[in-house]
# Entry
Amino acid sequence: MMVKKTVHGGLVASLTAGLLAAVAAPATPAFAVCDGPKYKYTTTSKSLVLLPGSYKTAWADPGATVTYAKGKTTGWTVGGTFTAKAEAGIILAKAETSLAISVTYSWSNTTTQTISQKVPKGKRQGRLRLYSDGYRYKVTKYQLKSPCKYVKIKSGWQTAPKKKADTSVVMEYRKKPPVGKAAADITPQPIPVG
# Structure
């Protein structure tokens, strides 16, 4: 009887200790702890482009001369999917490192001479706009999620002006509107180089 009682007592003690240990153990967190930043970005597929500036001349008919006056200031800024300045700044830094390019969020230029060009004869009107060297590249944004894994949440193309860029005067065209009717304006796009 003494042996039976001892075994029984040991069993009770063992069960009691197990229950206490189960109660005292901390719960497993729902999200694992990660040291990485909340968001990460990758930049790929760079290409050199000419970016349209903010200032342009008025439209002129075929055969007319268009003049881009001296002293006109035009500007360029980051464009594309991620344009908020804080986020774009992070992406610019990433692009400079991973793509080996030199880019800036924005810059401006003032012409130091007057430039004139004649609109070719035909059915299109023309105007002059100053373009700047820049880059176009793809950006992919990832978010850190459980368990310590980055998940793609957004991607798109981005353009940025080149630091110490060269500029070029470009003639833009649109179809000449019928007499008495207004013509729709055009939205200039980056021009691939090479």
Observations:
- Confidence is low (pLDDT under 50) at residues 1-23.
